[in-house]
Design a protein that fits this description.
Structural class: alpha/beta
CATH class of the largest domain: Alpha Beta
CATH architecture of the largest domain: 3-Layer(aba) Sandwich
CATH superfamily of the largest domain: P-loop containing nucleotide triphosphate hydrolases
Number of domains: 3
Helix content: 40-55%
Distance between the termini: 49 Å
CATH topology of the largest domain: Rossmann fold
Order of helices and strands: HHEHEHEHEEEHEHHHHHHHEEHH
Shape: globular
Number of helices: 15
Bound molecules: adenosine-5'-diphosphate
Largest sheet: 5 strands, parallel
Amino acid sequence: MAINRVISAQSLNETEEKFNVSLRPKLLDECIGQRNVKDKLAIAIAAAQKRSEPLEHILFYGPPGLGKTTLANVVANEMGARLRCSSGPALTKAGDVMGLLSNVNTGDVLFIDEIHRLSTPVEEFIYPAMEEFKVDFTVDSGLHAKTINFPLKRFTLIGATTRAGLLSAPLRGRFGMLYHLEFYSAEELTAILERSAKLLNLHCEDQTLKLIAARSRGAPRTANRLLKRVRDYAQVKGEGVLTSKIVESALKMEQIDPLGLDELDRSFIRALVNVYDGGPAGIDAIAATLGEERDTLEDVVEPYLLQIGFLRRTKRGREITAKACEHLGLKCREEKNASDQADLFEQGK
Ligand code: ADP
């Protein structure tokens, strides 16, 4: 359910990816926001070009939909390099990696999404490739087993992960540059939407894009996806022009509230308040209550709730804040305790 929700920052099916591809910035200058990361990347790229060397390995980490894949594409474009893409779950055996690495040319960029999901044997196989640009490949087994030392061309590995914490220390240590992507401000998202609206040839009234940006929960992918929903709505219910009224109605139909929370976010908050008395509660317990994947909650729901101060992560589990209860009109624990005590007092009279 969460994967297909409108504000999910998860990657989409092919058609939507196509929509995204055309909106994906190709060069650093076209990327909006992430000033810090962009500045450091620009220096690293210029320095590598001056030395005529491939870039060091890079790790991008942060919640989904913030631009990790986009930046990998941008780095390859800026370096004039070829990009080869794969992902942690797709590389199950050393042979899969061997297939990728043996086709890599000098300077190529190899992008591995969800790199935290590489299996330990694959991860260990990659270490010498990253460090010394060689791999030790074992062919046959038992008595006939032979280890072949295979030299590789110098390449740049770009890893992306939503969970840097799950990466083993040896793998993390082999990246020369580690960049954390931050949520985007409303102004940055408005600028991204202006760029997208232009590319999609959309007519928007003043301020309408600001309304969408405010509900995009800090992620460009969500912003672009909401823009697409609103565009559909405007085409069917209006004249195709994005007016404030059309945008408000479209977002209401998608059940997205003024803070960008959708039904899954609200169910998460309600479950914590109603079932777990506001917490602390373990993420597995909450996932079981909601019938959702733990990963979805950790990747897609929690980062934004933490960011806006609706959720606290403590050693004992997740706790909801009074601010979240207020937003949904729910009684928070202190209020509940006070009213329970008042009831007891009334009963005792
Ligand atoms: P991630 O890999 O972190 O999940 P993506 O790189 O796939 O995120 O980004 C999702 C979409 O958001 C892209 O297709 C692109 O259209 C848009 N996007 C990401 N970063 C930027 C940016 N800095 N400026 C403009 N659009 C962006």
